[in-house]
Write a structure and sequence with these properties.
Elements (H helix, E strand, L loop, with lengths): L2 H15 L5 H11 L5 H8 L3 H16 L5 H12 L2 H14 L9 E5 L2 H4 L2 H18 L1 H15 L1 E7 L11 E4 L5 E5 L5 E7 L15 H7 L3 E4 L4 E5 L3 E3 L5 E3 L7 H21 L3 E5 L7 H16 E5 L6 E5 L20 E5 L9 H14 L6 E2 L4 E4 L8 H32 L1 H5 L6 E5 L5 H20 L9 H7 L5 H20 L5 E3 L5 E3 L34 H17 L10
Antiparallel strand pairs: 1-16, 2-3, 2-7, 4-5, 5-6, 8-9, 10-13, 11-12, 14-15, 17-18
Helix pairs in contact: 1-2, 1-3, 6-9, 6-13, 6-14, 8-9, 8-14, 11-13
């Protein structure tokens, strides 16, 4: 579209929007811009300011791409986004991936990396007891999901560790969650936290008891703020930061990257709803036969018909006057029109409303875009029904699912540091940290492993290795040794091989003690029973047992006994020979 055409379109849209639809006014506006050399020149001739020209486009871009570094405004939008259905569903997916409970209802556990401490039963009992105490005051079983969710979309967690000022050795007594929009974090030039300030509108002296002993002086010194010691607040952030207009560091939420897609989806849904409401009703199309009337007469006749069906006379009981009211034509009304002998005359047809109501491809596009921004696999959308509900996994752990699980794992590593801060502070207040000589590397808090993608992936890998191992057993003692296959296919270390052999030996001994039958593995991996729990040579072979007091003929000689055990053994040996082939010497144990 050329420059003049662009300006003409703008002028026409503007005049139509103002209700000035007469042709002469539009033509007059066109005459003003026909010799324009630029957009600015044309707008100046039309008397339109740059602001008016860009107002609509700036409104859209300002609404979609608006950005702020003000902490309160950022948190307000993050919370609005977290309540948006699609984002709420994505956040729940992430939280469910990160927070999982075992059969005992536990979500995290304590791990001591110092062997001297872990081997000391009393020390471990003491550390475990204090750890369970911290979990109790946090009510971690009920609050873990919500605490993780809050951290994920707000980007910060502030937990005030309340102590007994008269006896700090009692440790942490309570955790009070503080609103992040009220807290200002102070940093030194090396980006180390030097303190926290909580903005308060009304200073309540009764609250000072739960702060440090220096709180009252801090409030007096820094009016409107409560000063906290760095060790008094358990604090974590998302690790993504920016600086506000004052040059202060501000934490950014994990969902900040999704705000553009969120705004676009909202606009798209609103536009779709408005369009459907406006276009949904059916409309009547009146075709009026004007015969051979001149143009002016035909227009007057048309106007008469329009007024007849678009207006009606209404008597106003208050004023006593007759008013012309609007007449809404219903679809159920009947119409009668005369027709000439040649079939000509007025007709009424129906203009159908929007028929493709079920087509929401454009909305689905922005939903997928939103999920990608949240790093949630788009495969979790039910594509078959084109809705936004999470469907159960199909068992295929694809690359997108693995990336998502790793993303959730990175977030929960930061979150677990918050619990670790509280636990460490509690141990230091109780004196346990100093007594046991603990360091940061000695203590870890880990999530309970769940049946996530790692376990599913490991199971698939093991299944594939075992299948290959079973196929390769036919070449044992011919081309490969069993040990080589275990090392290179099952990836077993020397220590694992020794441990496995010991376990097999123990299992055989246990089976014999229980009066059962020891099992001998065959080349195919199956196990066949061996009489008396061990390999017994056939009659006539070296080492064959002979009952005392009588002569037992060798196998094949006349009078050789055929007991049930020997029959069973013979069948087993035939089975072994058939599986092992010619390269295996009969009677050799594997």
């Amino acid at each position: 579209m050329s420059l003049i055409e662009n300006l003409k379109q703008w002028a026409a849209d503007r005049l139509i929007g103002e209700g000035e639809v007469e042709t002469k006014k539009i033509v007059k506006a066109f005459d003003k811009i026909k010799d324009s050399t630029s957009i600015e020149d044309g707008l100046e001739k039309m008397g339109i300011s740059d602001f008016e020209m860009m107002q609509q486009t700036e409104y859209y871009y300002g609404s979609i791409y608006f950005n702020t570094s003000d902490k309160e405004r950022m948190l307000k939008e993050y919370r609005e986004m977290a309540n948006f259905p699609e984002i709420a569903d994505g956040i729940d997916n992430i939280c469910e991936e990160a927070i999982d409970f075992d059969a005992n209802g536990e979500v995290i556990k304590l791990q001591v990396n110092n062997e001297e401490i872990s081997d000391n039963e009393n020390m471990m009992k003491n550390l475990q007891g204090e750890f369970e105490y911290i979990l109790d005051i946090l009510d971690i079983q009920n609050n873990a999901f919500n605490l993780f969710k809050k951290f994920y979309y707000e980007s910060e967690l502030f937990g005030e560790m309340v102590i007994n000022p008269s006896n700090p050795k009692e440790g942490v007594k309570k955790i009070v969650m503080l609103a992040p929009e009220t807290i200002k974090v102070d940093y030194d030039k090396y980006e180390n936290i030097t303190g926290f300030k909580q903005k308060v509108t009304i200073l309540d002296p009764t609250r000072m008891t739960q702060f440090s002993l220096k709180s009252a002086n801090a409030i007096a010194k820094d009016k409107g703020y409560i000063q906290f010691n760095p060790n008094q607040i358990a604090y974590i952030n998302s690790g993504i930061t920016t600086k506000n207009e004052a040059g202060e560091k501000v934490s950014i939420s994990y969902i900040d990257r999704a705000k553009i897609a969120y705004r676009q989806l909202k606009w798209m849904e609103d536009a779709m709803l408005i369009y459907r409401i406006v276009r949904a009703p059916n409309r009547l199309v009146f075709t009026i036969d004007t015969g051979n009337l001149p143009k002016k007469k035909a227009e007057e006749y048309m106007q008469t018909i329009i007024n007849r069906y678009k207006t009606r006379k209404v008597y106003n009981t208050q004023t006593g006057e007759v008013d012309l009211g609007k007449a809404t034509i219903a679809m159920t009304e009947n119409y009668w029109f005369p027709k000439r002998s040649d079939g000509s005359g007025p007709t009424v047809t129906t203009l159908q409303g929007m028929a493709q109501i079920g087509d929401i491809t454009d909305v689905i596009y922005f939903v997928k875009k939103l999920y990608k921004a949240l790093k949630v696999p788009t495969a979790r959308l039910d594509e078959a029904d084109k809705n936004y509900f999470y469907t159960e996994r199909d068992g295929e752990e694809n690359r997108e699912e693995i990336k998502f699980a790793k993303y959730a794992h990175r977030i929960r590593i930061r979150w677990i540091e918050w619990v670790k801060q509280i636990y460490k502070t509690h141990l230091k207040l109780k004196g346990v940290w100093q007594e046991f000589g603990l360091t940061d590397d000695d203590i870890d808090i880990l999530f309970i492993n769940s049946n996530d993608w790692r376990e599913a992936l490991n199971m698939k890998t093991r299944t594939a290795r075992l299948a290959l191992y079973a196929d390769m057993l036919q070449y044992v003692d011919v081309d490969f040794s069993r040990t080589w296959l275990k090392k290179n296919i099952l990836h077993m270390s020397d220590e694992e091989l020794r441990e496995n052999e010991e376990m097999i030996k123990q299992d055989k001994e246990h089976a014999l003690e229980m009066g059962g039958t020891a099992l001998e593995p065959t080349v195919s991996g199956e196990e066949v029973p061996s009489p008396e729990g061990e390999f017994t040579p056939a009659a006539g072979e070296e080492g064959a047992p002979s009952p005392e007091g009588e002569f037992t003929p060798a196998e094949g000689e006349e009078g050789a006994p055929e007991t049930e055990e020997i029959k069973t053994y013979k069948g087993s040996m035939k089975n072994i020979q058939s599986r092992l082939g010619k390269g295996f010497a009969r009677g050799t144990k594997k």
